[in-house]
Write a structure and sequence with these properties.
Blueprint (H helix, E strand, L loop, with lengths): L1 E3 L2 E2 L7 H11 L14 E7 L3 H6 L16 E6 L2 E9 L2 E7 L3 H17 L1
Antiparallel strand pairs: 1-2, 3-6, 4-5, 5-6
Length: 119
Amino acid sequence: MWLGPDEWLLIAEDDATELAGALEAALAGIPHALVDVSHRQCAIELAGPGAQRLINAGVPLDLDPEAFPVGMAARTLLLKAEITLWRREAERFRLEVGRSFAPYVAAVLTASARDQAAA
């Protein structure tokens, strides 16, 4: 995911060591820094027809598919927690969050789901 002019977040869903080796080889001779941050990250996936609405209860971004299409990622806040939000499919999102904030994010999303179900 492209996060900024000089920053990418790579998610290895298979062998991270193999990916890191391949990237180091491909980038040989090009100034770069490749840092494994998997120890500090936690992923939460939300999917289904209410996923966008649930996330928008705490995220200030416009998640309309025209403004935030499939494949787009952005660093943002979910209330007080910094997250990286990635729209993987029309109704499927992945939130990357620091491990220490994961319980807070899960509680916020659970409370929001309860509130939306009661409405």
